[in-house]
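Attaching the record inline, Q. Sequence:
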Amino acid sequence: MYKNITFKIKDNIGILTLNRKKVLNAWNKEMRFEICDVFKNIKKQKDIKALIITGSGRKAFCSGQDLNELKNFKENQVDAWIEEFKKVYSSIRSAKIPIIGAINGVAAGSGFQLALLTDIRVSHKKAKFGQVEINSGVVSIIGPWIIEKVLGLSKTIELCLTGRLVMGKEAYNLGVIHHLTKREKVMQLSLKIAKELSNIWIETCGPSTLSGIKYLVDHGLSDRILFGSDMPVMDCRQQIARIITTDISEEDKKKILGLNAMKLLNLNPI
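Structure, as predicted:
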């Protein structure tokens, strides 16, 4: 279906693989479009509980922008080019499921930014990370804003001005990487974390939770809500009545008020 990426679902976990191994998974216009399409489809598939993003091969997660695409780049194309990146980044950050970065190799330039946009990052000590555009005479426009949120202003300035790559161990110490493991176990650990994250449930009961419940339902999370009772501390009957009469579907009401809990406890509906 896709030319520059692959996408599959394993045990309710989506796995998106950047698949341009010959150019170290550098992305071009087509790849950015395909990534956006995956996220568009994920929104329609409620059975996907978490997503892993990784790169094909052993050498690279994503080496950033494919510079071959910029050989005939013209000034009047700049705004549209930046808009492409904004669409990809917005698709990732607006996703309603946790995203794990299985950083299997170098993550450089906008590939570094892509890694930082994931929620939890797993890598190995030989992987390399950095904002390297300056080494090619390219000014990073969006990168510093993303990097600063993770690393702070001081380290962002240093990495953007020097263009140096940091190895896995330093990246781990800086907080770029959350989990450091052996190269061959990066995907295995990422899958384990994804399954753990996909098992998160939201327990809610109280007079101030109704708007929050409706928000979660509107954003496709009705399968993850448990209406827990704080009895005998409080009488939850009034809140149950409010949920029954609120503006959500009958199916979602049944899930929140019992079916989700029965699913979690492996109980059969009566």
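The chain has two domains: 5-197, 202-264. Residues 78-93 form the longest helix (16 residues).

More tomorrow.
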